[in-house]
Design goal:
single chain; mainly alpha; membrane; transmembrane helix; DUF805; transmembrane; DUF805 domain-containing protein
Length: 182
């Protein structure tokens, strides 16, 4: 069981977004990482909800009378994406530092996406063949890459100081996701 620092999920989110936005040095606990990830996920779901409401209510912007675009959610989505991309990358790097690994391990999570660069080349290669099978294959690889990412971000921290600094205040002694939000 880790030390209770009294920080809430929201406190961790604000800390990652404002105080440590461009900071990839040091360590981030599992609690800090997953709190930030949860808040960003909620923000994305809110933008998707606003997009749905815009589309259902007809409050869209017509482009050449062909396409209807949900302009408010597009702007909000852009703001959320731009505002959280750097902070997300840096909290993930600090999370890797917590178990004494360099940021190069993040590339393990990106490897499956390199296959998507080949996706436009596959229909000519397959002809009218098994395009659905290829999409299922790439979808499975995507799910597996998220599983690898979740595992990497859930590994128990290095006990005591490591080459990236001293342990975080709320270092957890349990392994995996158990105990992250205790």
């Amino acid at each position: 069981m880790g030390v209770n620092t009294g920080k809430t999920v929201w406190n961790y989110f604000v800390t990652c977004l404002w105080e440590k936005h461009f900071d990839s040095k040091g360590r981030a606990s599992r609690r800090e990482f997953w709190s930030f990830f949860l808040c960003v996920s909620v923000l994305i779901l809110l933008v998707l909800l606003i997009c749905f409401v815009e589309l259902v209510s007809g409050y869209t912007w017509n482009v050449r009378d062909e396409h209807e675009l949900p302009i408010i959610s597009m702007v909000l989505g852009g703001v959320v994406s731009i505002g959280t991309t750097s902070a997300s990358k840096n909290v993930a790097i600090r999370r890797l530092h917590d178990w004494n690994k360099s940021s190069k391990y993040m590339f393990l999570c990106l490897l499956p996406y390199l296959g998507f660069l080949l996706l436009p080349l596959l229909p000519p290669l397959l002809g009218s063949g098994n395009v659905i099978g290829v999409l299922v294959f790439f979808g499975t690889i995507t799910v597996l890459s998220f599983a690898v990412f979740a595992f990497l971000m859930s590994v128990a921290p290095t006990k005591g100081p490591n080459k990236y600094g001293p342990p975080t205040d709320d270092e957890q002694s349990s392994s995996g996701l158990i105990g992250v939000f205790e």
